[in-house]
Specification:
It is built from ten helices and five strands, in the order αββααααααααββαβ. It has about 350 residues and is mainly alpha-helical. The radius of gyration is 26 Å and the shape is elongated. Keywords: Membrane, Transmembrane, Transmembrane helix, Transport.
């Protein structure tokens, strides 16, 4: 390798390092405030709400013997455990790798979300269903009396209403954070279901699912308790408890599917894909974007691999073009942390298109 080539490569490495440094600094502060000023707010708000809710529900369940309230107590304990696991996952993802994880620890968030879905949600749901099923059997064979004290159940119903208000506040916080994140990464606003399907934030997807399931579960619990109060029959309250457990089981399956997809590696948003293609195509020296593969390592970190055809088949020229491509991408999408690999190549008919 000639001295001239060595100087060119050294210059490229220096420019790339400076670009990454500038990107990191830009990620920490945008528009005069931290980029993730509200990141994690939904998890913290949900944990604070669920601790209080769990205590109130257990007290009401012990006082009234309500199956619906007991199932809701299990639900809230699972929710608290979920938030703690997600917070540990978030902290683990920020740790620097010692070399055994060359792309960092970003995916610890996705692993935490998968644990939440497959263990805590599912186990909590199965436990609640099993307890309600046992009580239903007891009511059917007459070993458990079906008469209820309406005044006692009134206390349980009051806890349901208060819990619904707290869970509603938690869902409101999640929705607000979702809107802010969509605006930050320049993604078109979508319905909440659409955002949940497209988001790369494991913790936000988990909390949104958790808050939504909590409100649905409280609706079933309230209906069960209310019907038992009106009829004086324990059966309706027990059915309400059974439905709460089933809601948890179904929610665990949906969350497992989402977090599993994130663990496997999801592509960038379609609009982000277009911005990337445009940034590469606008780079001087690029004749064709042959292929592009991008995978989210976490919500803010993207691994990007490109094949491009340059206007000259010259090593030094290609190095300069690669550097320009990286700078263009980081300038066009500064809200992401990029790990970029570019391979100059010659287009062939059997190449996979960048749009596929």
């Amino acid at each position: 390798m000639t001295d001239e080539t060595n100087i060119s490569v050294a210059s490229d490495i220096s420019a790339s390092s400076q670009s990454k440094k500038t990107e990191t600094e830009g990620t920490k502060e945008r528009n005069g405030k931290p980029a993730n000023a509200n990141a994690g707010a939904a998890v913290k708000a949900a944990l604070a709400a669920n601790i209080g809710v769990a205590c109130a529900k257990f007290a009401a369940a012990a006082f009234t013997g309500s199956s619906s309230m007991f199932s809701e107590s299990v639900h809230s304990v699972a929710d608290c455990a979920n938030e703690i696991v997600l917070m540990f996952g978030d902290r683990a993802s920020d740790r620097k790798s010692k070399g055994d994880h060359p792309f960092g620890m970003h995916r610890a968030k996705y692993l935490a979300s998968f644990i939440v879905a497959t263990l805590l949600f599912f186990v909590g749901g199965v436990f609640a269903v099993s307890q309600a099923a046992k009580k239903l059997i007891g009511l059917a064979d007459g070993s458990i009396p079906r008469s209820v004290d309406s005044l006692e159940l009134l206390a349980a119903l009051a806890v349901v209403v208060i819990s619904a208000c707290l869970e509603g506040y938690g869902l409101h916080t999640s929705i607000r954070e979702a809107r802010e994140r969509m605006a930050r990464v320049k993604v078109e606003e979508d319905s909440l279901i659409g955002f949940w399907r497209r988001t790369k934030s494991a913790e936000l997807a988990s909390v949104m699912m958790e808050d939504t399931l909590a409100l649905i579960g409280l609706l079933f619990a309230g209906l069960g308790i209310g019907c038992s109060m009106l009829t004086g029959d324990e059966l309706y309250d027990t059915i309400g408890g059974l439905l709460v457990g089933l809601v948890l089981v179904v929610g665990s399956a949906a969350l497992a599917f989402k977090s599993g997809s994130l663990l496997l590696g999801e592509d960038v948003d379609p609009r982000t894909h277009k911005l990337l293609s445009q940034a590469v195509a606008d780079t001087p020296g690029v004749e064709r974007l042959i292929n592009m593969q991008a995978i989210h390592m976490d919500e803010d970190a993207v691994l990007l691999c490109l094949k491009v055809q340059t206007s000259k088949l010259d090593r030094d020229y290609d190095v300069e073009t690669v550097d320009k491509i990286e700078k263009n991408i980081r300038a066009a999408l500064p809200w992401y942390e990029w790990e970029i690999y570019v391979e100059p190549d010659i287009w062939r008919a059997n190449h996979v298109s960048a749009d596929e």
